[in-house]
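Aim 2 progress update. The chain analyzed this quarter is reproduced below.
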Amino acid sequence: MLRSYAVTLASLLSLSVALPQAAKPSELSALDCQDLSSDPAPECWSKLNMPAWITHWISIQTVCDDGESWSGCFLRATFGAGTNYDCSKLSSASCIEPSLQNVNIKYISAAQYYGAYNIYLLNKYLSNWAQALSDKSADTAIQNYILANQVTYPQLLVSLLLKYGNNDVVATHFNQSLAQVQSSAPVSPQTPITEVHQALNSQLSDVLNAAMTDFDSDVFLTMTAQGALMVLPAEDPAYLEGEFKATNPGIVPSG
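Predicted structure tokens:
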């Protein structure tokens, strides 16, 4: 049985979480979510009732191969036979942004496109963080936080996402998804930084794998709730590395 180690917001020093800017009623009613010639809109995730739509698709699909992940099957069914999309691994070269140029718009529904697009966005979000946190520029930020706080690995990771990222809602969804992460070992200031890197990467990888291969875990629906992945672009690793350097010029002594 999986154990839950989701981090409480109280344990994150009462960091505030800003919800996505909601569309005005007049704007929402005028929004045509079936129009795939327009940029994807976060509000369409709810307007198209995507959680129920994908859940129903999975329950009735007959095209998935034995051993195939639900996300890989969904992408193949959306973009056609012969495609080899795989978004279940961090920084996968096979996880590319869905392009309507590659499909016949007449035969793809808006719900299919929004599902595929959010599969890609989730992989990009977690992959970018994995890359940034493995860079040496993150070492001081990580070590300073460990020196100042007695935390577990999940608490450390969520705290970094909230402090340095630009999408607090997705970071909070990630916190909720950490129920799938099995390790809550405390982090010691004496822990080698390479070991910390490996633990953080493992958590990002585990959440991604659960989202893309185990739909029943609800991790995918949790991470994509509110269309939050579409509100802001995923943080670029170079941007995050710059934030680490700008706010952590050196190790701050403990005590």
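The first helix runs from residue 25 to 30. The chain has a mean pLDDT of 83. These observations will guide the mutagenesis experiments scheduled for the next reporting period.
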